[in-house]
Specification:
This protein has 227 residues and is an alpha/beta fold. The chain is built from seven helices and ten strands. A six-stranded mixed β-sheet has the order 6-7-8-3-9-10, sandwiched between helices. A four-stranded antiparallel β-sheet has the order 2-1-4-5, covered by helices on one side. Strand 4 and strand 5 form a beta hairpin. Helix 2 packs across helix 3, helix 2 runs parallel beside helix 4 and helix 3 crosses helix 4. The structure holds adenosine-5'-diphosphate (2 copies). The site of one adenosine-5'-diphosphate (ADP) has 6 residues, from helix 3. Keywords: ATP-binding, Nucleotide-binding, Transport. It comes from Paenibacillus oceani. One of its GO terms (cellular component) is ATP-binding cassette (ABC) transporter complex, substrate-binding subunit-containing. This is Sn-glycerol-3-phosphate ABC transporter ATP-binding protein UgpC.
Length: 227
């Protein structure tokens, strides 16, 4: 439930300093569900990665709840990110996969246990905790990846095409689950997708990007009625 300000943010790559994100300016309110759409290569992931601290900001500032985070390492940001290829640790159990981030942060064991079991309950994966990722279906693995993120009860939730590897039926089901999770947890969410239906059904506002630039920021209705 954090406010995020991206203040004229740029990302340059390479010797020519080619800008892949240009003058990205956006204020995101608490509990918003923002969806980034736009063609492949337009800078959506790079923007998410800068918010998460996985990518340096070339120019501009990012503030989370009025705190400048440009130089804050990822582990010190109250942010959880879920990727498209939700790499789970194959040799760990599901329990250990979900607990991993909390263990890194040296939380007491009983607190970790409570948090893991709560996240597992929310996502309906309690009965798989002793299994390994290879023993789960794609949809179940995607739930585990979400479990790893929500277990920390983050203020900000960044999702980079988290459903794109799932079949159509599961995608619809997980979409409903994400909407429910957002209502329940209230984390400020930024969601990257290619899928118009996902954008329409989930977004409080849609950010349309092209060639590193914001083209439009509006409600789903406005984006599709007045593109
Ligand atoms: P999207 O998520 O919208 O598909 P990305 O943010 O992944 O787009 O990429 C934006 C642009 O930045 C692309 O042209 C991509 O090739 C380029 N890019 C991404 N990462 C790097 C990198 N590490 N070095 C150079 N160029 C990169
Ligand atoms: P210790 O070695 O300190 O006795 P345990 O590894 O037995 O601790 O775990 C303590 C608690 O954590 C247990 O009560 C259990 O609920 C939970 N726990 C630990 N590992 C798992 C696991 N793989 N699956 C489910 N619960 C676990």
């Amino acid at each position: 439930m954090s406010k995020i300000l991206l203040n004229h943010v740029y990302k340059y790559y390479g010797k020519e300093k080619q800008a892949v994100v240009k003058d990205f300016h956006l204020e995101i309110g608490e509990k918003e569900f923002i969806v980034f759409v736009g063609p492949s290569g337009c800078g959506k992931s790079t923007t998410l990665r800068m918010i998460a601290g996985l990518e340096e900001i070339s120019r501009g500032e990012i503030y989370i709840d009025q705190v400048l985070v440009n130089d804050l390492p990822p582990k010190d940001r109250d942010i959880a990110m879920v990727f498209q290829n939700y790499a789970l640790y194959p040799n760990m159990t599901i329990y250990e996969n979900i607990a991993f981030g909390l263990r890194l942060r040296k939380q007491p064991k009983h607190e970790i246990d409570t948090a893991v079991k709560r996240a597992a309950r929310v996502l309906g994966i309690e009965s798989f905790l002793e299994r390994r990722p290879s023993q789960l279906s794609g949809g179940q693995r995607q739930r585990v990846a979400l479990g790893r993120a929500i277990v920390r009860n983050p203020q900000v939730f960044l999702l980079d095409e988290p459903l794109s590897n799932l079949d159509a039926k599961l995608r619809v089901q997980m979409r409903a689950e994400l909407i429910r999770l957002h209502k329940q947890l209230g984390a400020t969410t930024i969601y990257v997708t290619h899928d118009q239906t996902e954008a329409m059904t989930m977004a409080s506002r849609i950010v349309v990007m092209k060639d590193g630039l914001i083209q439009q920021v509006d409600t789903p209705e406005e984006v599709y009625n007045n593109p």
